[in-house]
Amino acid sequence: MREVSRQARAKGHKIGFVPTMGCLHDGHLSLVRRVKEVCDVVVVSVFVNPTQFGPRDDFERYPRDLTRDADLCIAEGVDYVFAPEAEEIYPRGACTFVETEGLSTVLEGESRPGHFRGVATVVLKLFSAVRPHVAAFGQKDAQQAVVIQRMTKDLMLDIEVLVLPTVRDEDGVALSSRNAYLSDEQRIAARAIPRAIQAAEKRVAEGEWDAEGLLAAAREILEAEPLVLIDYIALVDTTHLRPVDEVAGDALLLLAARIGETRLIDNATLRR
């Protein structure tokens, strides 16, 4: 991968990168399409990163189908699929990790201790191997995007990080590899998540800025669905992910919920 990157850069080519854990869907492919518009060479990585899964997470059963992923990448005109083994990314004796203090221990970080240490570490390693000019991430994983943007800035990496809109299914549910775990009944219940976000957005459109009222509107929708168990729901600023009392400028509405054994996250940017 490094040699491919070296040769591309020597030719003056701009390298675009989409890091994934595979099980590709149209959300991932939307990132690929955007990167293709601004870069000469497109690389997609497929790596299920063990260090971002906790003991309660689904590492062993996380869906994997590299052949299907590669076929989708070929169809989209991806130049290279980078699919390293865990031993290549984490060789024996590896003991260096990346922490984004403050950002990585709240919200998802509080629910999944160590998750963002694993995310930041693997993304930095992938950046080192691919050496992209541009890297694209989805807004669905909003906190992850904030963490990666902060890491890139703090470590002075010469990489432009694009954060692109969440892609949703026809029923409003955000595309996610984990949606495959849902039964038909659970999938219907999952529609409460985008409805909750829409309820808060509607309040903002009507001129309500108070966090308490916005969160109550979203929570009411979620609590009305018996299969949905709320993990957290919060309104935070877009830079430090600190709770805010009202929407002033941009604020992130973030939520996570369990439906059976499946944990789903979603978010929206609320603007005043």
Topology:
Blueprint: H1 2-10, E1 15-20, H2 26-38, E2 41-46, H3 66-75, E3 80-82, H4 86-89, H5 108-111, H6 115-130, E4 134-138, H7 142-154, E5 160-164, H8 184-190, H9 192-205, H10 211-223, E6 228-236, E7 250-259, E8 262-271
Parallel strand pairs: 1-2, 1-4, 2-3, 4-5
Antiparallel strand pairs: 6-7, 7-8
Helix pairs in contact: 6-7, 9-10
What labels would you give this structure?
272 residues; alpha/beta; Rossmann fold; Pantoate--beta-alanine Ligase, Chain: A,domain 2; three-stranded antiparallel sheet; 38% helix; globular
Short structural description:
The chain has 2 domains: 2-164, 3-Layer(aba) Sandwich (Rossmann fold); 177-271, Pantoate-beta-alanine ligase, C-terminal domain (Pantoate--beta-alanine Ligase, Chain: A,domain 2, 2-Layer Sandwich), CATH 3.30.1300.10.
Give the amount of beta strand, in percent.
15-25%
Strand arrangement, largest sheet?
Answer: 3-2-1-4-5
- Report the CATH superfamily of the largest domain: HUPs
Quickly count the domains.
2
Roughly how many Å apart are the termini?
44 Å
Helix content: 25-40%
What Rg is obtained from the alpha carbons, in whole angstroms? 19 Å
Count of individual beta strands: 8
CATH architecture of the largest domain: 3-Layer(aba) Sandwich
CATH topology of the largest domain: Rossmann fold
Number of helices: 10
- Give the low-confidence spans: none
Taken from the alpha-carbon principal axes, the silhouette is globular
Secondary structure category: alpha/beta
The level 1 CATH classification of the largest domain is Alpha Beta
Secondary-structure element sequence? HEHEHEHHHEHEHHHEEE
State the major sheet.
5 strands, parallel
- The overall pLDDT average reads 97
